[in-house]
Amino acid sequence: MFRRKSRPGIRAKGTTWRAMAGLANVALLAVALTVLALGCNGKLEERRLRVAVDILPYADLVSRVAGELVEVEVLVPPGSSPHTYELTPRQRAFLEEADLVVAN
Fold first, then answer.
1. I want to staple 58 with a disulfide (CB 3.0 to 4.6 A). Which of 13, 41, 53, 97 is the partner?
2. How confident is the model over 46-88, as pLDDT tens digits?
3. DSSP string, 61-95
């Protein structure tokens, strides 16, 4: 009977929430890295933080946000499926010693 008019500026269902969730994740990551870097006493630690990420785009994001404060290890190499990839023993050791893990 009555058609609901589409409103300009409203995107397809769910895309606005996805964009907001992505921005919230980036902000949360930035806050977490800052807190880890500063510690309780407000001084930067001597060593770089060890961050493990599951896929390459997250490694780029972490590197751009934290710069030289972090050592980033990508767990799933480019071209591999994150769903079926198995970690190597060296990657497992890095993951156990990591200060922060960023995964999807």
1. 53
2. 778 999 999 999 999 999 988 888 999 999 998 988 889 999 9
3. HHHHHHGGGEEEEESS-TTS-TTT----HHHHHHH
Question: For residue 42, what are the CA distances in angstroms to 24, 32, 36, 45, 58?
Answer: 24, 14, 10, 9, 26
The model's pTM: 0.58
Give the residues across from 51 on adjacent strands: 72, 100
Q: Is-contact 52 94, C-beta < 8 A?
A: yes
Q: Is the dihedral of CA 78, 76, 47, 69 positive or negative?
A: positive
Single out the residue of 32, 34, 101, 29 nearest to residue 61, CA to CA. 29
Number of C-beta neighbours around residue 102 at 10 A: 19
